[in-house]
């Protein structure tokens, strides 16, 4: 066995590892996408063409035009809102003398850790009206007439998604603002330029790549999001491409669903391509030149207090308030009175005809513990496997420079980041849902769910792995190789221990993303492999909002514990915005 490992190590220590990673990425990423494209040309059950049904039939408006229009409106509004909100907070934290910059910067990154379906449920607890049944929310209980447009449909979906994704824009823009040389700003001010002139003439042009990147990431996330439009739009029959895709798969019209998946991918790719075209049209955005630079902060003067209060209002409204609403909504018998008559029945109560149509508390529901254990095991397994593959890809990209192949590995490993989760799940059903040669169909098995989630987590794992492995000098690996240490020996005795802290943080980040995912799991889960996110969505869909909120709180607690552990493992570095 050791001799076999040694021969295998020698085989992959040259260019072999890069070739192996190409094969792995072909299985996990390329093959599913090619399969759904090919399957869309198969005749449908009525002998027609799925493309014609979606794009040129009497069903086109219902299947494609209306969902696409809704999707584009949501995507553009969310991208614009995220850049404005995230950019404002980034400017405040990085370039002004606002008090509590470090804490505001930390709070602004938290909303992305809260699953979007949790924010959607919190919105419903506050703004829901009784139009579609299930009772109204807190505002209606206080005597306010909540209009339909504020309770259901486009507006709440956009607001919830902005609250969820603005953290992405904030992170990207803040990092770019931190590199702007304060000497440029000081020189402009000394020449008499106003603050507005400095902002629009110097700062914004320099960070425009970050603005475009923040908008692109927010747009891609919004158009592919399933939870928010499903919980806030479907009750009033507002369809987006992601909800329509889910509906097609659910009623057995898979080919039409695959067409919608390809169109969804195309829309995301088109927007990202436009962003790249804008960036390529300018000669240079360089702000890091290697010369000495110092940050420059604007004195806010009389606007300091109101802008500080506005920043805290945004942070609290998107982090603390949703959590408080979820907790209250899991304890209150009536959503009209969230803060009175609290009871633990929805957590530990026995089945009673007087409560929730005979439903027992979630802690008495055996499905909860099955879902909890399945979610934890799946999250750990996916995070572990994805990070192992991520480290191997990072080693291949860092230590082996193979023309064309290295670039191909880098691009394919990042591709899942650009793909809508629900479209990715559809691709896995298309490829692995049927037998392949001697291999049985995986549809309905936890393995299919694990494979899809592993592929979806690869961008996080690879980026974490590259950042960590790149810090390890190649001289150490070369010295070990000259003493006769094989590839696996060097990987286990040198790379893994030195990169352990960073890799553990990456593992926890992947774990948090898996347990909060609904876009992939809602298509691939089965009754034999229930998951917490799907259980919460099922409760909400059936009108049991208290139970849905209680399950969501459990997910939030697990996410926060994992996020806190990741922060500790990163060494409690001082926040760079301080």
Number of helices: 27
Distance between the termini: 53 Å
The global form is globular
- Could you state the order of secondary-structure elements as H and E? HHHHHHHHHHHHHHHHHHHHHHHHHHH
Number-wise, the strands total 0
Structural class: mainly alpha
Please indicate the percent range of residues in DSSP E strands (runs of 2 or more).
under 5%
Helix residue percentage:
55-70%
Gyration radius, rounded:
25 Å
Low-confidence stretches: 573-578
Main beta sheet strand tally, sense and closure: none
For the residues shown, what is the average pLDDT?
83
Protein name: Iron ABC transporter permease
Main location: membrane
Keywords: Cell inner membrane, Cell membrane, Membrane, Transmembrane, Transmembrane helix, Transport
Subcellular location: Cell inner membrane; Cell membrane
List its salient traits.
single chain; 578 residues; mainly alpha; globular; disordered C terminus; Iron ABC transporter permease; MetI-like
Describe this structure in words.
- The protein has 578 residues and is mainly α.
- The protein is 70% helix and 0% strand.
- It is built from 27 helices and no strands.
- It has helices spanning 2-39, 50-55, 60-95, 101-109, 116-127, 138-141, 148-151, 154-177, 182-190, 195-206, 208-224, 227-232, 241-250, 254-280, 304-318, 320-329, 345-348, 366-399, 405-418, 421-432, 446-469, 474-482, 487-498, 500-515, 521-524, 532-541, 545-569.
- The protein is globular, with a radius of gyration of 25 Å.
- Residues 573-578 have low confidence and may be disordered.
- It is found in: Cell inner membrane; Cell membrane.
- Keywords: Cell inner membrane, Cell membrane, Membrane, Transmembrane, Transmembrane helix, Transport.
- This is Iron ABC transporter permease.
């Amino acid at each position: 066995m050791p001799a076999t490992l040694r021969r295998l190590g020698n085989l992959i220590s040259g260019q072999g590892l890069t070739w192996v990673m190409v094969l792995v990425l072909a299985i996990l990423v390329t093959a599913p996408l090619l399969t759904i494209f090919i399957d869309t040309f198969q005749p449908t059950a009525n002998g027609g063409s799925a493309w014609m049904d979606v794009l040129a039939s009497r069903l086109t408006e219902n299947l494609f035009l209306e969902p696409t229009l809704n999707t584009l409106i949501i995507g553009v509004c969310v991208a614009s809102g995220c850049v404005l909100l995230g950019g404002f907070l980034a400017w405040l934290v990085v370039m002004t003398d606002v008090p509590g910059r470090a804490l505001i910067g930390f709070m602004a990154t938290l909303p992305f850790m809260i699953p979007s379906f949790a924010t959607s449920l919190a919105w419903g607890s506050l703004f829901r009206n009784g139009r579609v049944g299930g009772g109204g929310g807190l505002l209606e209980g206080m005597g306010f007439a909540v209009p339909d447009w504020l309770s259901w449909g486009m507006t709440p979906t956009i607001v919830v998604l902005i609250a969820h994704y603005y953290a992405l824009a904030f992170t990207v823009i803040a990092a770019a603002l931190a590199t702007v040389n304060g000497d440029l700003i000081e020189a402009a001010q000394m020449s008499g330029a106003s603050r507005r002139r400095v902002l629009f003439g110097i700062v914004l042009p320099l960070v425009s790549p970050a603005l475009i990147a923040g908008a692109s990431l927010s747009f891609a996330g919004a158009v592919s999001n399933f939870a928010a439009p499903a919980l806030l739009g479907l009750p009033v029959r507002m369809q987006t491409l992601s909800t329509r895709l889910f509906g097609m798969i659910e009623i057995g019209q898979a080919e039409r669903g695959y067409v919608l998946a390809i169109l969804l991918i195309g829309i995301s790719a088109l927007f990202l391509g436009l962003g790249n075209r804008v960036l390529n049209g300018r000669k240079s955005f360089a702000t890091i030149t290697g010369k000495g630079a110092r940050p420059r902060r604007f004195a806010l003067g009389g606007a300091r207090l109101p802008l500080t209060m506005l920043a805290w209002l945004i942070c609290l409204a998107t982090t603390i308030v949703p959590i408080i609403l979820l907790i209250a909504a899991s304890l209150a018998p009536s959503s009209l009175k969230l803060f009175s008559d609290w009871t633990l029945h929805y957590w530990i109560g026995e089945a009673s005809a007087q409560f929730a149509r005979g439903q027992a508390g979630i802690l008495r529901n055996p499905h909860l513990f099955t879902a909890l254990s399945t979610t934890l095991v799946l999250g750990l397994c996916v995070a572990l496997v994805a990070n192992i593959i991520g480290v191997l890809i990072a080693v291949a990209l860092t230590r082996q420079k193979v023309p064309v192949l290295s670039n191909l590995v880098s691009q394919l490993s990042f591709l899942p980041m650009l793909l809508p989760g629900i479209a990715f799940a559809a691709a896995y059903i298309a490829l692995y849902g049927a037998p392949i040669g001697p291999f049985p169909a995986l549809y309905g098995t936890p393995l299919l769910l694990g494979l899809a989630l592993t592929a979806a987590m690869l961008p996080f794992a690879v980026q974490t792995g590259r950042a960590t492995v790149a810090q390890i000098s190649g001289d150490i690996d070369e010295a070990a190789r000259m003493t006769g240490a094989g590839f696996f020996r060097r990987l286990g005795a040198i790379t893994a221990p030195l990169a352990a802290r960073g890799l553990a943080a990456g593992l926890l980040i992947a774990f948090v993303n898996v347990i909060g995912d609904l876009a992939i799991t809602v298509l691939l889960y089965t009754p034999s492999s229930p998951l917490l996110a799907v259980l919460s969505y099922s409760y909400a869909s059936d009108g049991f909002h208290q139970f849905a909120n209680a399950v969501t709180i459990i997910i939030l607690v697990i996410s926060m514990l994992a996020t806190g552990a990741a922060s500790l493992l990163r060494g409690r570095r001082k926040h760079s915005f301080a």
